[in-house]
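pipeline: protein-struct stage 2 | run 1193 | EAL domain-containing protein
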Amino acid sequence: QAKDRGRGRCVLFEPHMDETLKERRLMEKEMRRALERNEFFLRYQPIVTGDGSRIVGAEALIRWRHPKRGEILPAAFLPIAEGTDLMWSIGAWVLRSALKDALSWPELTIAVNVSPSQIRHPDFVPNVSRLLEELGFPASRLELEITEAAVMDHTDAVKSKLDELHDLGVRIALDDFGTGYSSLSYLRQFQFDKFKIDRSFVMNLEHEAESAAIVEALVNLADALGMAVTAEGIEAREQHDFLKEIGCEFLQGFYFGKPMLAGELGQRVLAGEGPSRLIAKG
Ligand code: C2E
Ligand code: MG
Ligand code: MG
Ligand code: MG
């Protein structure tokens, strides 16, 4: 009982909280309907080489085409789904859809975000493995992006799942690196193949010596640990120049491409922005 926890803590009874709860329920109902009516779709954001010349991968990012509200970003609905069975259903839909789309881009690595509750679901690893088999999708071309929140609790259980995925050949990336509490210790405990330097460090690096120093140190850290590294959120040429200079392996940001529809990514890959161009040129 909220009341038992003492005065000032009876927040559950505030009228606006009540409203929020109602909104949540409504939203959950709408999300269930959205799954049935196919209102979710994926955008893909290119991931390019450090020199910016080739697309080597893409990150799948979910969107909701709401009948009344138009295109909605994940921040507005995924937190409500997280921790409910909805997140499992949505996550499974994302994984299947991304892998199916990525069959058309045989040279790209496809990055798929996985939420904390998704990875803790007992069927998570079997589901990934079944999907890869069913679609004939090479495990090495799938990269699962997880955040620190996913490994924070139930650490041992999550670790063994990540090890299983690793054994399948799936790659694991630690997303939003640097924003959490103890990211460095997670690098030691888990076998991540890659970390992604959070956008907040990249955003101001041309104006802030501290951000630039942190980004450079993180790129060196990846190198020292033998890990791959992607810098996220590059929007300006100066940021790219710096990242190229320090030898950051992979880059992602509006500067190279906003999240786009599958067809558009396919066209860009075909137009020679993919690895095939270099291969063809020798
Ligand atoms: P994330 O995984 O860190 O994805 C990168 C986010 O940064 C995306 O936002 C992307 O649009 C945005 N971004 C990329 N480059 C730039 C840039 O240059 N400037 C700016 N301002 N933003 C940039 P989005 O698509 O809104 O997704 C937000 C977060 O929602 C993702 O962060 C991820 O944590 C989560 N998410 C998205 N799709 C999925 C999904 O299918 N499943 C799960 N579990 N989470 C997802
Ligand atoms: Mg991500
Ligand atoms: Mg990120
Ligand atoms: Mg993020």
